[in-house]
Amino acid sequence: MRRAWLLVALATAACGGGDAQSGGAKNAKNGGGGGTGDNDSIADIASREGLPSLGGGAGGSGGGGGSSGSLRLELSDKDNPIRVDGVTKEWTLVAARTVTKGTAEQLTFKCGLAYDSNYVYFASEVGGVGLRHARRFAEDEDHASLIIVAPGGSPAELTFYPGKPGETAGVVRSHGRDVPGAKLVEAENGDKGYTFEAQIPWSALAPPSIRVGMRGVARFHDGTRTIIASGPGDAQSPNDMPALPTESEEALLEQFLIPKGLSAPKFELLADIRGDAMKERVAVYDRYLTVVGPNYRDGKEFFYRDLGADVLKLEARELTGRGKQDLVIRRQFTGDVPREWLDVWSFMSDEPTVVFTHEISVSQGSNHVTNAVHLASKEIDVTYDPAAGWDATNYKQPRASDTEPVLLPWGQVKSQTFRFDGSKFLKAHEVSQAGTAPPTQTIVTNTTTNTTTTTTRVEPPTPVQRSGGDLSSQLLAKYRADRGNNDRPKVDVQVHVDGDARPERVMLIGRDVLVFGPGFKGGNAYAYITLSQFTDAGDIEEMTARDLTGDGAADLVVRGVRHVSTNGSGTIDSHVMFVYQLKNEAITRVFAIETSRAQGQKKIQGLVQMVPGAGNKGFDIDVRPGRAQGWTDKTYPFSQDQPGGALEPLLLPWGGIEHLVYKWSGSTFAKSP
Max CA-CA distance within the chain? Predict the structure, then answer.
């Protein structure tokens, strides 16, 4: 089975196989619907259609997705594409056991699904009947069917009629017509039955921007006598069909929801928050916000963050002018005096940035003071509503210090206007009024106690980033002449990384990281390092800028893959992450860790997250074991590496190390005791 494995989930806050297998993708061989409204939430769709929850619980009788023996969509490895030749021996197939018509007797049907960016692949193995070659492609002839429904779409039902190997081509049909771009290849299996593989364009199965939150079943029709299916439901009762999770949804379920015992989400949205036009699935389980998507982080991983408070509302609005939706989150910190915050999260990279936060409510019993917030594109207005039970004489609540505090009717500020500057909403205007000075007592709101004398960690701000520009093109020309490097930059941004507050130009050119700017080295020299740990520039997957050390300047996070030769175990693909700090005009590596390891179809994926550090300055790096595919503790040829070396270790599911935290020491990220 080819399952693309879960890459490192960086969060700022992870049928021949019988019953125990999932319907999975085929390994590559060496040879060779409807639409939704833009602002539809999954909750809205679920109320109409019964959308399946990954964690189980609400959402129709189809229930959750991803249990053993269930059909699911496996991501095809883009470096080893599926070859459609009718042979299914390299698939892991699910045995269909739901007989919806007639009796199965000797009839068996196994199936599996896979997908890439353009196609869905359907593999089947039919036993107990011979290959009766269809001539009319009619319902009374032997055929298979696949029914898939996406949120907000109509069920798509395709029928598959095998042909005669070497003579008559099989066909894939929808509503009695051939599906453009689809193909089917069959192979006879002697007297035992036959197999086939089919390739279907995504456009025949789902709306253009949605590839998450789907339901589906596969069925085999023995003429008009028997129908055997992978689960309940059909095109007439799509809500009864089981969930059909994609790779990232399955990873979220297996690696996060099930271990934490989380079931139905409190909130879910379909929103285009990052990357291409495909919508991401955003959900809140208990106090955790999660994100998955068909192309978010290559469709292989999920994001989650502990929000540290009860979530009262989640919505998606286009506020930052990026042409993408941002998340508006309303949280309540409970205690003797509950307080509510309104946050705006923007996914300007694969990790979210909190671009706005404001306290909007303080209450105690029937007493309360609340703020009204008006959200518009690139502008947010805040003013107060009339208070209940409190006035200037009896309001004694402490003032929040780690966010914009709630506006009080008797305070000195009547309203505030915040405008987006490209990286966050800054206070642009304030209307004053005569009022009583606020109490001098301040608080930081705490998520771990039921008092109002301690606080939650707030994500440190991200330095402003802009597209790369001049900032002295002469230095770029000098670098190119000195190094003989005329490659096109893979990364080119302006961001403050060292020295005074002016931004530097940071570029990734080939394997070189180049830095220069007017306030860097006096504006007349550059600095660079070569990422020699990577064999080729193509092995460097990305470089992003984020203030991890809490000094107000961005650090550089580099991710890529190393191809490591071992003694007797062949070549290993080791995915790694490096963090570089610029200090005193030098580029220094301050952290390195292996995040996953693969060899052919065998993979081990760790879970690495960045969580806000104490004092709301910088981040801690949280490391935990992930999951293994193809290897077990008995077959894995390497032992668990220990922390403390030049490259921090990948944690194995059976390695005996359950959790590591690395904290900024002032010069490096060091393992916390």
Answer: 92
* 3-state class (DSSP) for residue 266: coil
**Domains in the chain, number:** 2
Coil/strand/helix, residue 452: coil
CA gap 293, 210 in Å, rounded: 9
| Pair of tokens at residue 180 | 């453009």
* Residue 586 lies inside a defined structural domain of this protein: yes
Q: Do the beta carbons of residue 64 and residue 70 sit within 8 Å?
A: no
Q: For position 14, what pLDDT does the model report?
A: 34
Is residue 626 a contact partner of residue 653, using CB atoms and an 8 Å limit? yes
Can you tell me the distance from the alpha carbon of 616 to that of 244, in angstroms, rounded to the nearest whole number?
Answer: 40
Cα-to-chain-centroid distance, residue 241: 25
- Last residue of one domain, picked from the residues 302, 328, 362: 302
What Cα–Cα distance (Å) separates residue 401 from each residue in 365, 445, 452, 522?
A: 23, 9, 12, 38
Report the predicted TM-score, pTM, of the whole model to 2 decimal places. Answer: 0.73
φ, ψ (nearest 5 deg) of residue 278? -65, 140
Angle at 546 between CA 594 and CA 472, to 5 degrees: 115
CB atoms within 10 A of CB 670: 16
Query: At which residue do the structure tokens 């394997």 appear?
Result: 511
Whether 67 contacts 289, CB under 8 Å = no
Rounded to 5 degrees, φ, ψ at 518 are -65, -30
Burial of 175 (0-12, 13-18, 19+ CB in 10 A): exposed
Mean pLDDT, residues 139-159 taken together: 91
Q: What is the pLDDT of residues 623-654, one digit of tens each?
A: 988 778 789 999 999 999 999 999 999 999 99
Domain with residue 273: its CATH number is 2.60.40.1190
At 317, the pLDDT band (50, 70, 90 cuts) reads very high
Query: How far, in Å, are 5, 259, 262, 356, 588 from residue 623 at the CA level?
Result: 17, 16, 21, 28, 22
Number of C-alpha atoms within 13 angstroms, CB side, residue 183? 8
Residue 389 lies in a domain: no
Q: Torsions phi, psi of 37, nearest 5?
A: -70, 150
Q: What does the alpha-carbon distance between residue 530 and residue 514 come to, in Å, rounded to a whole number?
A: 9
Cα–Cα distances (Å) from 348 to 312, 354, 464, in that order, read 24, 10, 11
Task: Residue 219: give the domain boundaries.
Answer: 1-302
Report the alpha-carbon angle 617-623-627, nearest 5.
Answer: 150
Using DSSP, state whether 616 is helix, strand or coil: helix
3-class secondary structure for 56-112?
Answer: CCCCCCCCCCCCCCCECEEECCCCCCCCCCCCCCCCCCEECCEEEECCCCCCEEEEE
